[in-house]
Amino acid sequence: MLFKYHLDEIKAAANYLDKNIHSTIICFNGPMGAGKTTLISALCRKWNVKDQVSSPTFSIVNEYETYSKNLLFHFDFYRLNSIEEALDIGVEEYLDSGNICLIEWGERIKSLLPDNKYIVEIALNEDDFRTLKIIYK
User: Fold this and answer.
1) If you placed Cys at 75, which of 30, 54, 97, 103 could pair as Cys (CB 3.0 to 4.6 Å)?
2) Can you give the residue range of the structural domain that contains 93?
3) What Å distances lie between residue 95 and 10, 43, 91, 99, 131, CA to CA?
4) What is the structure's pLDDT at 75?
5) Looking at residue 122, which CATH number applies to its domain?
6) How far is 39 from 35, CA to CA, in rounded Å?
7) Rounded to the nearest 10 degrees, how much is the dihedral formed by the CA atoms of 95, 118, 13, 106?
8) What is the average per-residue pLDDT within 59-64?
9) pLDDT at position 67, please?
10) Stretch 120-137: mean pLDDT, rounded?
11) How many structural domains is the chain composed of?
12) What is the model's pLDDT at position 106?
């Protein structure tokens, strides 16, 4: 499935993901600056997150409470130095919690991810649009 959007259409992209993803584990892959955090923030607004959404680049994980989806975990593994670091923060417990886990740079913990997940590939196009590709694995 492909969806093309401009950043000023981010709400439409979040709506598209909401309708087409049916799993608690969602990985967002794409180059630096592709808009992973921006898209996750729009999705969190769609899901009525009570808390302010911010990048967990330094904390690795942010926990949000929502009105419609209970707890939601937002990970950013860009600064991860090893799989052991992910294990130290208890990533397996988060993934097994049954709560939604939105994961940036999930390829850095690929061996820890379950089979039943969605991968959202974000490509930057030359026309300043983004293309989303949703893959279920």
Assistant:
1) 103
2) 2-136
3) 26, 19, 6, 8, 27
4) 98
5) 3.40.50.300
6) 6
7) 60
8) 94
9) 81
10) 94
11) 1
12) 95
